[in-house]
Write the structure tokens for this entry.
Amino acid sequence: MAEYADLKAEILSKFDEAKLHHDEFVRRYDRGERSYHGIKERIGRSKWRHDLRPRYAFNLLETVVASQVEMGLRFEASPSPMHSLDPEQAMHQLMMTQDVEDLLRHEHRVDKMDSKQRPLFLCDCLGGRGVWKSYWNYVPGMTKHQGVHETVIHGPDGKELGTMPTLVEIEDQGMLRDHSTTEVVDPRDFIVHESAQHLDPYKPGGAQHLFHRCWYSYEQLLYLQSIGVCSGVETLKESKDFAGEDYYGREKQVFNITRTKDLIEVIEYWVFRNGKIFFSWLGGRKTILIPEKPNPFWHGQYPFGIVSSMPQPFSMNGTSTIELIEALQEIAWELSNQRLDNVELINNAIYLIRSDVEDPDAFEYYPGARWEVEDVQQVAPMTPPYQVAEVSLQAEQLVKGDLQNVTSAAPFAGGTQTETVDQKTATGASIVQNNAQQMLALKKWNAQLGLTDEAQQRLKNCQQFYDGDKLVHILGPDGKVAFKQIPIIAIQGEYLLELTAIGESQMRQERRAEASNFAQLMIGFAPIAAAAGQPLSIPAIIEWFCERWDIEAPQQFFSVNPAAGGAAAALPGQGQPAPPGGPPGQGAPPGGPNMGTTSSTAVDASAPSATGGLSLSGGQFMQRAAALAGGGRGGSMNGG
């Protein structure tokens, strides 16, 4: 491997240089993780002194993470025409946007991307950045399945009588995994040189080289060598553990495990050179497993991304949420432990015994005990002021209020308060609540920018590695699972992806309430529109409503059974047309459904509802729908 000596020296030199400043990040991350789990170096105390550490930070960070996770990721795709694209090609891309969205949703389901959001956002809360790595999960291997085999049946004389179908196990060479994937990277394993401000190497301040510190077992490396990924694995069988103290923190203190035990360090080196990105592998800091090769991905970027809810300008290191509450949590611990010490002192009385008492141990402590003394002053209880147990209560309450306020995690949930705003009034409470919601919304928006970058790389990987057509599952009519075949060649090109917008009110609850109110208003206008000869499209209203409620595939609510359209066919503007020359609302022709005769004032928008005019009551429309479906015909609505 003499030809790789220069590459090995380059990797080790740049790695050691970048690790000098990265070690400070690792220490800060480990400190935040210990605070998250309520771990603190114990100080020598008397046995009766309290040293309790409730996990305030754990609960607060989980609240922040829960507000950022978006279960069921959905992206809106739009074409991003290049300068060489003609209008016809651009229109074709526009028609294929739905296929792009369906493909991404399918890939996220297969890769279980929803379950990866929590660890990604939690790393951001602990260290100021979460790191993901996007690549193609390609695992060839032997697949097994049941099949039918015709077994020959022989008679007693050995003569062939016929065949009988038998279930047998069939093993074929196939594909175990073949889809896009994203891996959540331990931030302590992701090392970038000191001057990097972002990951785009083509822009000013972009990372010119970076390292991903991977950990493989010897058997895993042998497998990678067998499928042609790397070579020279045999030299690593007796490799040294280079983890050192980098991973001693939380894993050892909480779970008593060593995360890198019996694993081999592989440094994945990515470098920007001569206008292109190259990568290589160095195993055990001694063997080049993969020599320098061009970037295998079409997107032309490093296959990594950063998630940060509080990014800082001109830096890849954001501000972590744990930094805001670490000191406050320790103050709360100290104050609460002191209060418990005071309570224990008060509840367990201390007696003052005069020095002329011959045998102090003769006094037995139990309810109803009688002590014979020459003078009542010989033995007397010490009476510390009970107020000392209440001195810290107000300070603790203020600290717990600050814990929630600085993280914007559900203020007022714990009955806490601060003196910055008068929270005893509805106006003051509304101010604090709105500020907290806006802060959490901004954190979520910043964090989810990283998910958009991940989806962009995932889409480019699908365009590159899938060949032929891709079959994906979607929701069809009646909520049934349907399949859709997407031609990969038809979705080539550049697309812009955006997470589905939160809404006009920036809060999901408010958006849904607005949609519900508007949908009710539109349904209320339906009779007026029908009377005016401009009937509303009920399916369009339902699709719009489902979109605001984040309901995927509204087609599932439209029945494909013709019998289910009976009542809908009789709605104004939805059923049979009026006879030629007749006004809207005229009775059906002979042989058609008898809808009765509508009063001339029943559709008069100027008449009050008390005189038979229109009403926006939901009960009226439910009654009208039941009547159209045949309810109450020939008797009362409640007839048995």
Observations:
- The mean pLDDT is 79.
- The two ends are 91 Å apart (CA to CA).
